[in-house]
Request: fold
Amino acid sequence: SAKGGKLNGSAACFDPTKKQQDGRLAVTIDGVPDQLSLKPANLYILEPFMDMAVAVGRTDLRSDQFMATTIDQKLGKRVTVQLLPADGTALRSKGTLIALNDYLRQHRIPEEKDAVIHLTDLNLARLFNTYVAQQNTTQQLSASQQPLANTAGKYLMKRNHKKGGILLFKYQPFRIHRGDRPATGRLEAVLNSKFHIYPCPCNTFLDSLEVRFVISGRSTHEFFLDFGQDETIQYVKNAHCMQEVDRLKPETLADVDPQLFWSSVLHSKVVVKTLKNLEPCPDDLIQRWSNIYRCYIQSS
Reply:
């Protein structure tokens, strides 16, 4: 089907011990809300020879210097490191693109082997999987980041054209994960103004923010990384350019990317402003984020 065709090349995970009676598997796909029931024949199970990660972070919230790193997760060691001074740009996505291009330029990924590269940016993970699956760079980011994406995309398509191993990009955020809490609980707490965001006081997570919120009458909390207004704006623009604006619906974002959900709540004023400047953009989406901004003001 056309709907199924749009999922080609997507990264997903499942529990092989939980097969349904008809043999189908409950699969969680990066960027897609809810689980899907898929036949095993529609899945390619990777046995990665290489397991890499690209991450951008900082030592604590006061630091104005970020570090873009590639990590060999099988060996547990850093492969490349690059310092990124804060310059008023979207450093998480920009740093990810820089670090990925540096790694691809300096290191060879065996073409006959399967490999996985984990990214902390959902937009970029979905974009590069599309490049590999469709063998073109039709899907675009916003203009400021597309040249860096094209550089990596050319390498990915060239490698895949040789019909060797599969190279898959898997979304892997820090601190907070999709299944940690019910997505409906996050959104419900925000709409009821029963949440509070503040710098994490824990010495282990000095780079993080903490959000405490109420689910079903009980208080809970999550840690998340926030890269500021510029990164949140860039995320919204990139999702729009990728024609995945539906992923910005509050209930969907709370499910597929809770880290960016909380960042978008924190910066909801600029989210509304950014959405108003994008065309086309559903009026309902703008209204819903305007309502979230009002809830954020009330919670503060």
About this structure: The mean pLDDT is 89. The chain has ten helices and eleven strands.
